[in-house]
Specification:
oxidoreductase activity, NAD
Length: 44
């Protein structure tokens, strides 16, 4: 894989992890937070 693709994947994974933390801050959005965390881990 190209270095640019790998770098972009890591940036997207980092954004998903940040969204995961934001989603886990409230009970109403915790399910979405977990989903973002799982997606970020799958990409990383």
């Amino acid at each position: 894989m190209g270095a640019g693709f790998v770098t972009a994947a890591y940036i997207i994974a980092a954004l998903f992890f940040i969204a995961s933390l934001a989603g886990l801050s409230r009970q109403e959005t915790a399910r979405y937070g977990n989903g973002f965390g799982m997606a970020g881990m799958a990409i990383a």
